[in-house]
Amino acid sequence: MLVVMAFFVVWVGCWLPLAAITAFILNWQINKPLQPEQKIPLLVSLYLLAPLIMWGFNWLGLGSFADYGLVGNLSILGSLLLGLGLGILGLAVVFSCQFWLGWCYLEKSNIKLIPGILLPISLVALFVGGIEELVFRGFLFTTLEKDYPIWLAAIISSLIFALLHLVWEQTETIPQLPGLWLMGMVLVVARLADGNNLGIAWGLHAGWVWAIATIDTAELITYTGQVSEWVTGKNKKPLAGLAGVLCVLVTGVILLVFLT
Known about the structure:
Low-confidence stretches: none
Distance between the termini: 28 Å
Strand content: under 5%
Order of helices and strands: HHHEHHHHEHH
Helix content: 55-70%
Radius of gyration: 19 Å
Strand order of the largest sheet: 1-2
């Protein structure tokens, strides 16, 4: 646990000067919520530091990227694609069911916006998914597993993963906390199903981020209000609703049944 605490202290300590400079350049006022165009530079600067800090810990003999599930061979690409497909397919099924039930409808006029945002959102999804999996299902889970049973390491790492999302936004994140914790647990299962590699978990994470970011950015979905937002997702966030939680849960069951 001391190694985990040291990692996050060093990571945040190295990032704070960069965050201060970035916030000054962006003219961000601390009493106002972050806008997307302000959040992305802060997030990128934070996430770019993670592999560097991890490399330093590796240099000290505290582990390696291979130990964390990031292997340097072509097999990880196949696993990545499998995870991407599973993540996107799962959300496609969820929204298709909601269309059929009349809970929401597709803004067809906005489909034309997708080509223009496809590349940047895809790059962000792969980057965010990769770094978060390396940190939480890679370094954090592997380190905790040395001191705790695998189930407890999964619970703790998933809880930390969920709670740290509060750093960026509190109001919309709080209703998502149970869903984020469950997502973390399923991504641990994905790593175990992939022979302790991160490929499937990375792909799943990136697929979910890509699909939700595309829907939000292009404003593809409009909810009809026929059911409570606790079913479809409070504040239009799938993980804050029953539908999104079921999607993640079913994905976990598929991983357990077919891949383990």
